[in-house]
Amino acid sequence: MLSRIYQASDARQLAPERRRAQRLAAPVKGVPVYVMLPLDTVWLLERDGAAQPLLIREKAMEVGLEMLSRAGVDGVMIDVWWGIVEHAEPQRYDFSAYRKLFEQVASKGLKVQAVMSFHAGGCWAPCRLCWRGCACMCPGSA
Q1: Axis crossing angle, helix 58-70 with helix 96-107, rounded to the nearest 10
Q2: How many other β-carbons are positioned within 10 Å of the β-carbon of residue 61?
Q3: Local structure of residue 53 (DSSP, 8 states)
Q4: Is 3 inside any structural domain?
């Protein structure tokens, strides 16, 4: 009886070693690579007397996404600035510029990691409406 218990415990100790050896022998696929898009890819711009969320530098983005796709990148990461999405009034959401970007990304065979950014832009991300940094409280700073 004890010999069976010892054999079973030996088998459990060997099992992790076998699993580790199998993992080392398996082909490595690598780590998915996502490239962060510029913080101002989508921004509020004044058009016809109203602020509208727009995808800026569209043609440059198209070329850049094509290059990333050809380089074998898995996808892109983008900050979705809530101050832009909800710029008109609370609980009125406008994802149109982000939707346009996501369609552009998908057309190149890339994936999207969308990070919902609820914080205001700091000194590293000046507001595109007033160009101030940390003290800015206008909707363009998110």
Answers
A1: 40
A2: 19
A3: E
A4: no
